[in-house]
Amino acid sequence: MEAGHDLDNEKRLAAEAAAQLAAEGMVLGLGTGSTVAHLLPAIAARGVAVRCVSTSPRTEDAARKLGIEVEAFDRLDLLDLAIDGADQIAADGWLVKGGGAAHTREKIVAGAAERFVVIADSSKPTERLAAPVPLELHRFGLAATLRELGPVEVRDAPPSPDGGVIADYTGEVGDPAELAERLAAVPGVVQHGLFPAAMVSEAYIGRGDSVQRMAITPPGAAADAEYGRGQ
């Protein structure tokens, strides 16, 4: 990133661009984190009637204060659109999420959406994913889970919104699909923060004073040059 670029402003620009996707009558999934904090007022400013589910109490409280309708997720089984941030966005579309400790809920919401859009600043795109990869772990049998996982550090942080222990895998990521499969196979892992490209429709990346759209395409297909140049 060039010197002088304001990452928080890039987050705001990306969030405002994605907010334009929210249309009257949609059911939306709202993520968690500093970029989503910019998304909420942008959606409220649209003035469209939407119904939302939230991935964390923090997002829910902030949305309600802005007059955005938030419902319990158990009342909705399909979302039109989910919008969330990311910690890393690989060139092939894989994501690392979970810096805010809500990645289990975020993955459930993203999976329930017909369209999942990622918003981020210019520091988040990367050629290859790297550690840390957030984990949510069961407290029961934690020592055995940590032994089986290998290089993992438990965070000195509050639990997940559902009471899980938050940790980070600190080893080599390598092939994210292989690591995702290995992490998911450990019984004490509630969920990991690797999100496959197949879940993601597109990403809006703030770059300086503009926003570039990164179309997430399947392996072998042509991807947008430089994360959305010309769009």
**Widest sheet: strand ordering:** 3-2-1-4-7-14-15
Number of helical regions: 6
- Provide the succession of SSEs: HEHEHEEEEHEEEHEEHEEEE
Mean pLDDT: 92
Brief summary:
The chain has 6 helices and 15 strands. The chain is an alpha/beta fold.
Helices, strands, pairings?
Elements: H1 7-19, E1 27-30, H2 36-46, E2 51-54, H3 57-65, E3 69-70, E4 81-84, E5 88-90, E6 95-96, H4 103-112, E7 116-121, E8 125-126, E9 133-137, H5 142-149, E10 152-154, E11 165-169, H6 176-184, E12 189-192, E13 194-195, E14 202-207, E15 210-215
Parallel strand pairs: 1-2, 1-4, 2-3, 4-7, 5-8, 7-14
Antiparallel strand pairs: 5-6, 6-13, 9-11, 9-12, 10-11, 14-15
Description of the structure:
The chain has six helices and 15 strands. The protein has about 230 residues and is an alpha/beta fold. The strands form three sheets. The protein has a seven-stranded mixed β-sheet, with helices on both faces. The radius of gyration is 17 Å and the shape is globular. It starts with 6 loop residues before the first helix and ends in a 16-residue tail after the last strand. The model is unreliable at about 220-230 (pLDDT under 50).
Keywords, please?
alpha/beta, Rossmann fold, Alpha-Beta Plaits, 2 domains, 25% strand
